[in-house]
Write a structure and sequence with these properties.
By secondary structure, this protein is an alpha+beta fold. It is built from eight helices and seven strands; from the N terminus they run αααααααββββαβββ.
C-alpha cells in the first residue's frame, strides 16, 4: 500500500516526468458528496414544501369534521330530532371520507409518499416513506370500510360508536401526512444549514502553501496544496490560513480556530510547546491572527481534521 511517509507526491511526480509523462494538476472538486448537487436539493425542498402546503387544508377539515362527528349531541341536533342527527352525522362522515381519500391517494402530499414508497420497494429498501404510505392507506381503507358499515347498518344501536370509529380512522390519514411532512421540512432545513457550514469549511482551506525546499537553498516556494508532503516546512504569515496540520517549529503567534473548533478566542501557538498541546498543534483551515509561524506538516488532505 502507498505510504506517504516514504514517498511523497512531489517524488512521484518527478519520477513520472522523468519517464516522459506530460502531467498537469487537475482541478480537485469538493470532496463532500452532500455539496455536489445543489439543484437536486433545491428541487427536493420545493417538492416537500408543496406537499406540506397541500396537506394543511385536508388535515384542518378532517379535525373539524371529526370534532363534529365525535360530539355526543351532534351539535345539538340529536336532542331535538333523532333523524336529523343521524343524517347530519352520516353526511359529516361522508365529508371526512372524501377528504381522507383525496388526501391519501390524490393530493400532492399523499402522492409524494406513495411515489417514494414505490421507488424504495423497487430497490428492496424499507424506508420511512414506506411506513407512512402503508399507514395512511390502511387507515383510509379501514375507515372507508367502517363508513360502508354505517350505511348498511343504519338501525344498529351502536351506530354512533361505529360512526365515531370510522371518522377517527379517516381523520388519521391527513393528519399523519401533515405531521410527517412538517418533520421532513424541519429536517431538510437543518441539513441545509449543515451543508452551508460545510461549504464554509471547504472555502476555508487554501489551495497553495509556502514550502521550504532544501534543493533551492532553503528558500520558500509557493506550490499547490496537492503536492504538500509529510515533514514539509511551511511558512504561515499573518492573515493566512494553515494549509495542513502540523506542529510549530519556528516562531509563534495566535491562531483563530473558530471555524474548525468553534472556539472564539485566539489560541496561542509557540515553538517548543509540549507535543500534543494546543499551543504546538496547528489545524488546517484556521487563520493566523498574529505572528509568523513555520510549521512541520504532520497531516495533509483527507487526513486533517478539516478533511475528515
Amino acid at each position: 500500500s502507498y505510504n506517504p511517509r516514504q514517498v511523497g507526491a512531489r517524488v512521484l511526480l518527478a519520477r513520472l516526468v522523468d519517464a516522459g509523462c506530460d502531467l498537469r494538476m487537475p482541478a480537485v472538486p469538493p470532496p463532500l458528496s452532500i455539496l455536489a448537487d445543489g439543484a437536486r436539493a433545491e428541487q427536493h425542498e420545493l417538492q416537500i414544501g408543496l406537499a406540506f402546503q397541500s396537506a394543511i387544508a385536508p388535515a384542518i377539515v378532517a379535525l373539524l369534521v371529526l370534532a363534529v362527528v365525535m360530539s355526543p349531541s351532534d351539535m345539538g341536533l340529536e336532542v331535538h330530532n333523532q333523524a336529523a342527527a343521524h343524517w347530519f352525522g352520516t353526511g359529516m362522515l361522508v365529508v371526512i371520507a372524501i377528504v381522507a381519500s383525496w388526501a391519501t391517494f390524490r393530493s400532492r402530499a399523499g402522492c409524494y409518499f406513495l411515489d417514494s414508497a414505490s421507488k424504495a420497494l423497487q430497490h428492496d429498501s424499507f424506508t420511512m416513506d414506506v411506513l407512512v404510505a402503508a399507514s395512511t392507506c390502511v387507515t383510509s381503507v379501514y375507515g372507508l370500510g367502517l363508513t360502508v358499515l354505517c350505511f348498511t347498518n343504519a338501525d344498529s344501536p351502536v351506530l354512533t360508536e361505529l360512526r365515531g370509529s370510522a371518522a377517527h380512522f379517516l381523520a388519521m390519514a391527513p393528519v399523519l401526512l401533515l405531521v410527517v411532512l412538517g418533520g421532513k421540512k424541519l429536517e431538510f432545513r437543518a441539513r441545509q444549514r449543515t451543508a452551508a457550514a460545510l461549504k464554509e469549511l471547504l472555502a476555508a482551506q487554501p489551495t497553495t502553501a509556502m514550502v521550504r525546499l532544501p534543493e533551492n537553498g532553503g528558500s520558500f516556494q509557493e506550490m499547490p496544496l496537492e503536492l504538500l508532503e509529510l515533514g514539509d516546512r511551511c511558512r504561515v504569515s499573518v492573515g493566512s490560513r494553515f494549509p495542513a496540520e502540523g506542529v510549530v517549529v519556528e516562531g509563534g503567534g495566535a491562531a483563530d480556530e473558530s471555524l474548525v473548533t468553534g472556539e472564539s478566542a485566539p489560541v496561542e501557538k509557540l515553538a517548543g510547546a509540549p507535543p500534543g498541546s494546543s499551543a504546538a498543534c496547528c489545524l488546517a483551515g484556521s487563520t493566523l491572527a498574529s505572528g509568523d509561524i513555520i510549521m512541520s506538516v504532520t497531516a495533509v488532505g483527507p487526513a486533517t481534521t478539516l478533511g475528515r
